[in-house]
Design goal:
This protein has about 280 residues and is mainly α. The protein contains seven helices and five strands, in the order H-H-E-H-H-E-E-H-H-E-E-H. Helix 4 crosses helix 5.
Length: about 280
């Protein structure tokens, strides 16, 4: 394409599907971690580690990796490079804002007001992550932004984050989590591709970019595989934690039953002796 031409907005269907799958799996693991938050908090056990797992699963994998793969899904007539430090910043924004929102909602009794406030924190963080990630792109093109679509993408991000927090503290069963994760994946993808439509790429003359860059046609597939590996490790850790939690509960129940039986025996002893007398 020649300088001044606008790159048509189109996407590779295979990468769009990958972005949806990673968003759904990330949401599922995050919702599973949120269930652990509820369980251990109700039992008076430390719950912050599960907030960290949920933040990485949802913000770092389900949203950031989806965003990164989604950017690569857009058809471009040139290779795209990404500035490493801004890309890392976009990842941290997604994880930290998701973690802060989860912590804020989980630290006290759940309420609609806390959920909306947490959704605002997470949603603005998600939107910031997206546009910082766009700023990290090093391509021979400039963006012409549509303010209405930018506003729409931010609003969608806030609504998505609020819905995610509500679901995190309400879904109970595996099937509910799977359905909720599917809905979340659709919402996250909707936010991303709305934001992608907000910026029209206008070709410029080719130029060299300074700094440490990453890129390549295989990059979205590498991100997908690494993300799946991280989510599998997080899911395994949640499974181990669940087993330990159940073992502790079983031990407590056994202790209560044992102490109750001992108390009953001690209470029946004198009565039995008196009856025999």
């Amino acid at each position: 394409m020649t300088p001044g031409e606008i790159v048509p907005l189109s996407f590779a269907s295979g990468l769009v599907i990958l972005s949806f799958l990673i968003a759904g799996y990330g949401a599922y693991v995050a919702l599973t971690a949120a269930a652990h938050i509820r369980a251990v908090a109700a039992d008076g056990q430390p719950w912050l580690p599960f907030v960290g797992i949920a933040a990485v699963a949802m913000g770092g994998i389900g949203i950031w990796s989806m965003h990164f793969i989604g950017i690569q899904a857009q058809a471009m007539p040139f290779d795209a490079g990404y500035e490493v430090w801004l890309t890392a910043l976009s990842f941290l924004l997604a994880v930290l804002c998701s973690g802060i929102a989860l912590w804020y909602v989980a630290r006290a009794r759940f309420s609609a007001l806390r959920c909306v406030a947490g959704g605002l924190i997470a949603g603005l963080g998600i939107a910031a992550m997206h546009y910082v990630g766009i700023a990290a792109m090093r391509i021979p093109a400039l963006f012409l932004w549509s303010l209405p679509l930018i506003v729409a993408s931010v609003l969608i991000a806030v609504v998505v984050a609020t819905a995610a927090l509500w679901l995190a503290f309400h879904v109970q069963t595996t099937w509910q989590r799977a359905l909720a994760a599917t809905i979340m994946a659709m919402a996250v993808c909707g936010m991303h591709y709305t934001a992608a439509a907000a910026g029209a790429m206008v070709c410029t003359t080719p130029r060299e970019f300074a700094g440490l860059l990453i890129g390549g046609a295989s990059l979205p597939y590498v991100v997908f595989v690494l993300s799946i590996a991280v989510l599998a490790l997080l899911r395994w850790q949640l499974h181990r934690s669940s087993l330990r939690f159940r073992q502790k509960l079983a031990q407590r129940v056994d202790q209560l039953i044992g102490s109750g039986a001992a108390g009953t025996a001690a209470g029946n002893g004198p009565v039995g002796s008196l009856g025999r007398g």
